[in-house]
## 1
Amino acid sequence: MTAFPAADQLAAGIFVICLLTMGIGALIAVLSIRIIHSVCGLAITCVGLAGLYYFLHSPFLALMEILIYVGAVCVTIVFAIMLSEPDEPAKAEPRAAALAWSGVAVVIAAAIFWGLCHLGTRGNWPRPARTGDGSIAEIGKALLTNYSMAFELISLALLVAILGALAVARTGRTRP
Amino acid sequence: MNPIYDRLEIYLIAAAFLLAAGFYGLVRRRTLIGMLISGELIFSAASLNLMAFNRFTVQDPAVGQIFVLFIMGLAAAEVAIALSIIIAVYRNYRSVTTRELSELNG
C-alpha cells in the first residue's frame, strides 16, 4: 500500500527514462564520429545504468557507478584524449569496405542481441527465498569476512595497475 | 503481472542491448580509445546482468553487489593500464589509429 496514488506509474516512468538514457548513451558512444562525444555517451550510459541499479535495490552500487565510471573512468579517458589526437581520419579506408564492415558488425551485433533476448525471455529462472536484505551493512560485513581475501587482492591489483601505468607511460618520454 | 521495473526480462534485454552496442563499437572503431570505450560498455553489460540475477534469483543479495564492485575495481585498473599503453603508443607512432600500428604486420 503506497501513500501516493500514482506511485507505481511514476516509478515506471522514471524506470523507462533510465532505460532510454542508457540506450541513447550507448548509441552515442558507439555511433558518434568524434571521440569526445563518445566519452560523453559513455558517461550518459553510466548515469542511466546507475538508475537501473537503484531500481535493482542497490543504491550503494548506483553511487559507486557514478563515482567510479563518470567520476574516474570518463575523466581519465578525457585526459588521454587531450594527450593524444584520436579523432578518426576522414577516409582511412574505401567507402565500400567501410560499408561492408559496418554491415557485418550490425548483423553480428543484432544476432547477439536477438540470441540473448531469446535466452533471457524463454528461460525459466528460479525464484528462491531471500535470506538477507542486501543492505550496505550486510555488504560491509561480507566484504570483511567472507570476501576479505578478494578485497585485499583488489587493492593489490589496483596498486600494481597504478605502478604499471606509471612505468609504461614513463618510457619513451625522453625521446624526441 | 509485476510492474515493468520488477521484471527480470527487461534487465536482461537492456544488458543484451549494451553488449551488442559494445560489440558493434569494438568492431567498427578505428582508434584505440574508441575500442576502449566499447569495452567499457561490455563491462557495463556484464555488471547489469550480474545485478539483475542478483536481485531476482539469488538467495543472499549481497553477493552480486560485491562482485559488481569487484568488476568496477578491475575495470578501473584496466582503464588505467590501457590508457597508459595508449599514451606510450601515441608517443612512439604519433597516432592511435589501429591501421597504422602495423610494425609486426610482415
## 2
Amino acid sequence: MYIKWYGHIVWLLVAITPCHAAEVTIAVASNFRVPMEVIADAFTAQTKHHVTISTASTGKLYAQITHGAPFEVLLAADTRHPQLLIDKGVAVEGSVFTYAVGRLTLWSPNPTLMIDGLNALRQDGIRHVAMANPKTAPYGQAAYEVLNSKGLWPLLQHRIVQGENIGQAFQFVASGNAEIGFVALSQVLNPRNLHPDNRWDVPQHLHAPLEQNAVLLRKGQSHEPAKTFLRFLREPFARQVIHRFGYGLRG
Amino acid sequence: MLSYDDLQALWLTLQLATVTVCVLLIVGTPIAWWLAHSRSKLQTIVEAVVALPLVLPPTVLGFYLLIAMSPQGIIGSPWLQFTDATLSFSFTALVIASTLYSLPFVVQPLQTSFEAVGSMPLETASMLRASPVDAFISVASPLALRGYITATVLGFAHTLGEFGVVLMVGGSIPGKTKVLSISIYDHVETLEYAQAHTLSGGLLLFSFITLLIVYTINRRLPIRVA
C-alpha cells in the first residue's frame, strides 16, 4: 500500500519535470494561426520544447495580456499593440521585430464573382461582404481604409458583415454565408482551402502597411525557450514558411 | 451616457427578445401541452430535445445554424427562393437562433403548470360541452397563468443574455444583428471599459429585477387548482 502510493508520486514527478523539454505559451493574431502551427511543429521537432498557441484578434490578445494572461510571446497583427505593451511595461523593450508583412486579399469561393478587382463588390449578386472588425483587427482596419479610399464604403456599408477577428471573417465567406470578403492572404493560401486562386490581392498602397510585430512579454523574459522561439522565428526555415503563406519579409 | 451605437444595440436587443418570446409562446404552448398530457413513448425523446439548449455549448448550435442558414443551406436556400433575401446575418436569423436557444426556458415552466392544472378542469369543461380549443383558452390557460408569466419573463431575459450563437451567426451589423452582449464584447476588446460597465451594470440590474419578479410571483400566485 505504502509503496504503491509512493510510486504514484514518482510517476507524477517524472510526468511534470521532463529533463530539457519545456513549454512556450504564445499568443498569435488570428491571421497567422496556420503558418504558426507549421513553424511550431518544426520548432518542437528541433528543440523538443512544446508550443501552446492561443489565437484571437490582436485587440483581444492585448486586453488579455494586460490583464495577466500567461503568454510569453505575442505575435501581433500590427506594430501598435506590441508598442503599447512595451509602454505599459508588460513587454520587453528591444525584443520587438517585424516577423511578417501581411497581405490583404479580396476572396470568394465563387470564381464568377471575382472580376475586375474592387469592382467585383459592385455586382448585384453580392449581398454580404465580410471583413474583420476595424476596431479590433488590423486587417479589418486595412479593409476599411481600402473601401474608404475608393469611395465604396457608403455603397457597401449595409452589406458589410464583421467577423470578430479575421478568422471569423474568413469563415463567413468559406461557409457561403457571405459571397465575398476581405481576408488575409495567408488564410486563402491555407492548404485546406480548396479555392486559393479566386482572389484579388489588394495593392499595398491602398492601406497602411500591415507590419506584424513579434514581442517578448515579461512573463517570458526569464524563460529561455521563449527567447529561443523568437530567434527561431527569424531563421531561414521560419522565414520560408512565412513567405510561402504570402507574407512579405523585412530585413 | 449611452452612445448612439449602444442605444441602437439596446433597442435591437429589446426587439429581438420581444419577438422571440412571442414566437416561443406560440410554438411552446402546443409542445408543452403535448408533453404534459401525452403518454406516448416519444414524450421522453421530445423532452430531451427541448432541453438540449440547456446543456449544448452555444457554438454547437451556432455552427449548425451557420451551415443551415447559408444560401446553400437547408433553411437558407428555400428562404432565399421565397423572400429573395439571404437568411444569414438578418434579424430573422437571430429570431430563429434565439427561439431554439431559449426554447426550454419557455416550454419547461409551461409544461410544469399544465401538469399542475391536470386534466380534471378540462374534462369538466368538456362535459359542459366546451370545445377543446374553448376549454383550453377559457379554462386551462388562465389556470396556467403562473406558468405563462414565468415562461415569458425567463424567455425574455434569456434572449437578452444570449451571446455565443449570435456571435457566430450574427455578423455584428449595427441596427440589425449587433445586440447588447456583442456591444459589451466589442467595448471590452477595445478597452472602452466605461461603456462596458454601463451596459453590463444595466444588464445585471435588469436580470436581477427580472428574477426577483419571477420568484415573487411564484410565491404570491399559487396555482389555483382545487
